[in-house]
Specification:
Blueprint (H helix, E strand, L loop, with lengths): L6 H15 L4 H30 L13 H8 L9 H10 L2 H13 L36
Pfam family, one: TatA_B_E
Protein name: Sec-independent protein translocase protein TatB
Membrane topology: Single-pass membrane protein
């Protein structure tokens, strides 16, 4: 139904309202509640009109629902010919090559000149397995792994 209230829950609310307010006062409570809701709606509509009037004529088609992030993105970022916004994502993906960027960062971290050939095994020198350490050489230490 409305506000995610099922029919059984609605019946329970009606029975609870009859028990709390009694059958003789229940119509008056419902009328008062409806009057309050109408006043709140009228106040809200008045406030919206005041804001639109203060913003000026350039915001004449402004809707408060457009402030919802999903609606804002759908309205402002997606064009008519590209309903799902895939064109902009493809353009962005073509300007940014993740593999190239990661290779440059890895080369910079390992001290390899950009564009230099990688070791034959495809791994950096410090990760290749050696049989024995040189005399007096400390074993490799990875601070990120500890």
């Amino acid at each position: 139904m409305f506000f995610d209230i099922g029919p059984l829950e609605l019946v329970a609310l009606v029975v609870l309202a009859v028990l709390v307010f009694g059958p003789d006062k229940l119509p008056k409570v419902i009328q008062d509640t409806m009057a309050f809701i109408r006043k709140v709606r009228a106040f809200s509509d008045s406030a919206k009109e005041d804001i639109r009037r203060e913003l000026g004529p350039e915001f004449k088609d402004f809707e408060f629902e457009d402030l919802n992030p999903k609606t804002f993105i759908r309205k402002n970022l997606m064009s008519d010919e590209d309903e799902y916004g895939l064109k902009e994502l493809k353009d962005l993906r073509n300007t940014f090559d993740m593999r190239k960027e990661m290779a440059e960062v890895t080369d910079a971290v390992n001290g390899v000149e950009p564009g230099a050939a990688a070791p034959a095994s495809g791994t950096p020198d410090r990760l290749t397995k050696r049989e024995k350490l040189d005399p007096g050489e400390a074993p490799p230490f990875d601070s990120d792994a500890t």
